[in-house]
Backbone:
């Protein structure tokens, strides 16, 4: 009788743990199957996401420098246009910018090009503010000393201030790259083949939409987390060099 009761208790405990862990185990099995079966498609989507982000941050950095130069120019018209650009772009949702630019561009432009242009225009406004913050961190005394030596505003900025400000700007540009990686998900409206488009493809093929979202989320997390660690390492080395 005692053995029978112990056996029943053990069975009940086993059933309890099975009822708890079985769905969790099945969930991870499904996630693994999706990742394994669609890994080539996911890898391609990640590659497109990273490429689009890299193009955006590089071109956005150039555009941001131009916009910053305009916003800090002594010419009132350039200063007005630069600041207006920054405020307008930062005040409009990115998705709206993507759709507006895609519709406005001629049909000769590919969806990838249209998305890249929209992301670059958006990133340029934020990079301009990053550069502004980096420049403001440089001691104003150096600017005054340069001007007193006869250097023009342009010469002072590009020969004295920016080389010092670059140490403050680069880590922030790196963080902008991480942000852009996540923002490229909005480009899935155009079905470019990036990660969020891959999620839609997997969901339509398997009807496991939530599981597909989780797999794609893991890919996003791994890429952004890895880049963040690299950026922090670079930032530490730059501080040591000071």
Residues:
């Amino acid at each position: 009788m005692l053995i029978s009761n112990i056996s029943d208790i053990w069975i009940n405990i086993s059933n309890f743990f099975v009822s708890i862990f079985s769905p969790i185990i099945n969930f991870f099995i499904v996630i693994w199957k999706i990742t394994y079966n669609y890994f080539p498609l996911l890898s391609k989507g990640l590659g497109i996401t990273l490429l689009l982000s890299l193009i955006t941050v590089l071109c956005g950095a150039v555009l941001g420098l131009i916009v910053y130069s305009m916003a800090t120019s002594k010419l009132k018209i350039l200063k007005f246009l630069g600041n207006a650009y920054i405020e307008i772009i930062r005040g409009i949702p990115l998705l709206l910018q993507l759709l507006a630019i895609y519709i406005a561009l001629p049909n000769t432009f590919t969806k990838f090009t249209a998305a890249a242009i929209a992301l670059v225009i958006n990133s340029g406004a934020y990079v301009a503010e990053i550069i502004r913050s980096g420049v403001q961190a440089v001691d104003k005394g150096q600017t005054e000393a340069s001007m007193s030596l006869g250097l023009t505003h342009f010469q002072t900025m590009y020969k004295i201030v920016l080389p010092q400000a670059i140490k403050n700007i680069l880590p922030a540009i790196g963080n902008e790259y991480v942000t852009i990686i996540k923002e490229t998900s909005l480009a899935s409206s155009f079905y470019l083949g990036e990660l969020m488009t891959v999620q839609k493809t997997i969901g339509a093929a398997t009807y496991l939409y939530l599981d597909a979202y989780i797999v794609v989320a893991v890919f996003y997390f791994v890429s952004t987390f890895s880049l963040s660690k690299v950026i922090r390492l670079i930032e530490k080395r730059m501080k040591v060099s000071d």
In short: Residues 166 and 226 are 22 Å apart (CA to CA). Residues 44-241 form a domain with the MetI-like fold fold (CATH 1.10.3720.10).
